[in-house]
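Subject: design request, 377 residues
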């Protein structure tokens, strides 16, 4: 292992064991809570998709009419529809055309991505902490620009295009990923400049290329729509449901169920494992703190008593008549009055030893006294 790697391992171990592992315990607890929350959301989405009817486009009118007849809310009903993408207006030929392939489609997404690379420089250290994250394995990418065009489209039954059997797709407010196909993929190298050498030398990122991508949703593609179906002026319309991870997808209902079930199991066990580790580490840290506090308590008490004794000794220096000497040590002045008898017969140091006995009694009258209850003269 090289020297920088050893230094990084030492720093990482110190961070892990900081505050007896409290930091790593809280981090694992945060991951466990996030896993549990995602598990609940995934489990809810799985139940909704399982219970949602898987219907054909021609059956949507009956589903909407049943909803209207049962006095359900106007928001619509969750359905899953499998069909083919078609343009909404066939007469006006309202479609888009891909730039290079000339293929007809209803959604065109063009993006330009600047690709950066990064060298570790002289000392073997990168300029920041981004290489620690999985996203930065390999080249580091930063999005420069992206544009999306779309036209209104519908879903029809595969192989048929009757005007009376289709469902409008409402894309308003949808943030779900789209089942787009890549039709253009062009990487344009970026010429190095005089500054690039110094950027690489000192570990700073530098551009190496521009990636141009064009993705489309073509006509005739089979997709599955998962969303809320309602009737707009007698025409079925489907829109996205924000609580579900799917809207338009290439997967069938069975594939969605399998994928969500697997994700649910992963999140469940992640929550259990990370939660158990967090509880164990935080419990260990709490026990260490408790033992440390208990160990410091007698030390603090001894230090306090020694400090009081030193003060008493300094105050008791000088000539003292015999009748004012402590009856136990016979060297220091009487300063402590016991409660409840009130006898002033001991110095402060000896009074501490008297009251620390299991059954403290006054040295003169042998009456029981209360621990830690004596006044100073």
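Subject: RE: design request

Done. Sequence follows.
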């Amino acid at each position: 292992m090289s020297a920088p790697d050893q230094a990084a391992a030492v720093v990482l171990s110190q961070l892990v064991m900081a505050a007896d592992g409290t930091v790593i315990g809280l981090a694992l607890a945060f991951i466990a809570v996030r896993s549990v929350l995602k598990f609940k959301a995934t489990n809810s989405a799985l139940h909704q998709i399982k219970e949602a009817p898987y219907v054909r486009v021609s059956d949507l009118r009956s589903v909407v009419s049943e909803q209207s007849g049962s006095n359900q809310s106007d928001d619509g009903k969750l359905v899953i529809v499998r069909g083919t993408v078609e343009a909404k207006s066939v007469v006006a030929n309202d479609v888009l055309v891909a730039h290079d392939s000339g293929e007809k489609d209803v959604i065109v997404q063009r993006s330009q991505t600047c690709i950066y690379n990064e060298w570790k420089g002289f000392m073997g250290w990168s300029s920041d902490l981004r290489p620690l994250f999985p996203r930065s394995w390999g080249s580091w990418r930063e999005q420069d620009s992206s544009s999306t065009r779309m036209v209104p489209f519908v879903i029809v039954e595969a192989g048929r295009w009757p005007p009376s059997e289709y469902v409008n797709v409402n894309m308003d407010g949808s943030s779900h990923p789209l089942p787009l196909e890549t039709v253009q993929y062009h990487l344009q190298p970026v010429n190095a400049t005089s500054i690039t050498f110094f950027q690489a030398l000192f570990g700073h990122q530098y551009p190496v290329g521009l990636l141009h991508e064009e993705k489309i949703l073509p006509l005739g593609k089979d997709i599955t729509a998962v969303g809320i179906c309602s009737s707009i002026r007698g025409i079925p319309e489907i829109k996205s449901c924000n609580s579900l991870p799917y809207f338009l997808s290439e997967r069938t209902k069975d594939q969605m169920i399998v994928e969500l079930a697997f994700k649910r199991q992963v999140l469940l066990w992640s929550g259990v494992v990370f939660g158990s580790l967090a509880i164990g580490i935080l419990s260990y840290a709490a026990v260490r703190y408790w033992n440390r506090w208990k160990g410091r308590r007698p030390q603090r008490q001894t230090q306090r008593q020694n400090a009081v004794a030193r003060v008493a000794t300094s105050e008791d220096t000088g000539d003292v008549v015999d009748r004012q000497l402590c009856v136990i040590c016979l060297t220091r002045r009487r300063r402590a009055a016991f409660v409840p008898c009130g006898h002033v017969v001991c110095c402060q140091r000896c009074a501490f030893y008297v009251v620390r006995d299991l059954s403290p009694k006054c040295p003169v009258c042998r009456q029981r006294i209360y621990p830690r209850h004596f006044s100073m003269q």
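The radius of gyration is 39 Å.
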